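hey
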C-alpha cells in the first residue's frame, strides 16, 4: 500500500520500528499460546476418528447378530426339512427313492453343521469386537477429557489475549499503510527469513541487537544521522540508532498500556 504523503527517512525509520514493536508484541502473544491451538485441533481429529470407529464397530456388532439370527433360522429350516424327509422315507416305494431322501437328509445335516460352525465363529468375533469397543470407549473418554481440558486452557488464554491481539493487528495494518510498499515488502521478507521475526533492530554496544558483529563507526554515524535506510550486512536487518529506538519504545509502551 503506497504512503499517503511523502515521509522523511527518519519518519520511515520510526514507522518501521513502531511496526516492528507492534508485530513483536503480537508474536509474544501467539508464543504464549504456543502449540496449544494445534494440540486442540489434533485432539479434535482423534476424538472424531475414535467416535467414527466406535460407530462402525457397533454397526458391525448389529450386522453379526443379524447374521447369527439368520443362521439360526436356517438351522430350523434344515431341521424341518430333515423331519419331512424322514417322514417321506417311511412311505418310499423303492431303494432309489430312499437313497435319494437319505442324501437330502445328509445334505441338510451338513448345512446345519456349517451354520453352527459359522455361528460359533461369529460369536467369537462378537466377543473380540466387544473387547475392542470397550478399549476404544476408554480411549475416547480419555481423549475427550484431555480435549476438554486443553480447550478450556486455550479459551482462558484467548480470553486474556484476544482483545489485545485484535487491537495490535489493527495497529499493525494501520502502520503498514503509512509506509511505502517497497519498504513493507522488504520488512516482511526479512521478518520471514530471521528466526525471531526481528526485521528492524537498534544499535546496542556497537552491534545490531542480537548480533556479535561490530558495526563500523562511520556506519554508526550514518545510522544516527537518519538520512538513509541502512541494513546490517551480516543479517540483512534494517538498523536504527539506539536513541530513536528508546523514544519509539516509550511511545509504544504508552499505546500498549491503553489496551
Amino acid at each position: 500500500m503506497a504512503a499517503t504523503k511523502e515521509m522523511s527517512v527518519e519518519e520511515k525509520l520510526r514507522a518501521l520500528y513502531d511496526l516492528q514493536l507492534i508485530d513483536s508484541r503480537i508474536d509474544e502473544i501467539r508464543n504464549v499460546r504456543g502449540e496449544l491451538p494445534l494440540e486442540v485441533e489434533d485432539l479434535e481429529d482423534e476424538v472424531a476418528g475414535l467416535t467414527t470407529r466406535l460407530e462402525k464397530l457397533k454397526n458391525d456388532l448389529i450386522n453379526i447378530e443379524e447374521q447369527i439370527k439368520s443362521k439360526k433360522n436356517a438351522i430350523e429350516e434344515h431341521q424341518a426339512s430333515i423331519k419331512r424327509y424322514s417322514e417321506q422315507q417311511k412311505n418310499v416305494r423303492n431303494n432309489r427313492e430312499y437313497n435319494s431322501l437319505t442324501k437330502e437328509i445328509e445334505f441338510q445335516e451338513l448345512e446345519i453343521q456349517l451354520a453352527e460352525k459359522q455361528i460359533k465363529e461369529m460369536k467369537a468375533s462378537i466377543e473380540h469386537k466387544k473387547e475392542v469397543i470397550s478399549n476404544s470407549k476408554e480411549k475416547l473418554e480419555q481423549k475427550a477429557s484431555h480435549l476438554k481440558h486443553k480447550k478450556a486452557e486455550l479459551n482462558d488464554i484467548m480470553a486474556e489475549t484476544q482483545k489485545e491481539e485484535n487491537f495490535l493487528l489493527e495497529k499493525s495494518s494501520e502502520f503498514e499503510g503509512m509506509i511505502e510498499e517497497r519498504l513493507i515488502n522488504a520488512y516482511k521478507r526479512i521478518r520471514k527469513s530471521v528466526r525471531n521475526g526481528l526485521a528492524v533492530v537498534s544499535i546496542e554496544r556497537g552491534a545490531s541487537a542480537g548480533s556479535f558483529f561490530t558495526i563500523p563507526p562511520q556506519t554508526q554515524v550514518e545510522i544516527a544521522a537518519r538520512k538513509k535506510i541502512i541494513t546490517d550486512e551480516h543479517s540483512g536487518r534494517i538498523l536504527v540508532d539506539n536513541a530513536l529506538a528508546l523514544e519509539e519504545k516509550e511511545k509504544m509502551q504508552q499505546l500498549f498500556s491503553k489496551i
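The beta strands are 200-204, 207-208, 230-231, 238-240. Residues 95-178 form the longest helix (84 residues).
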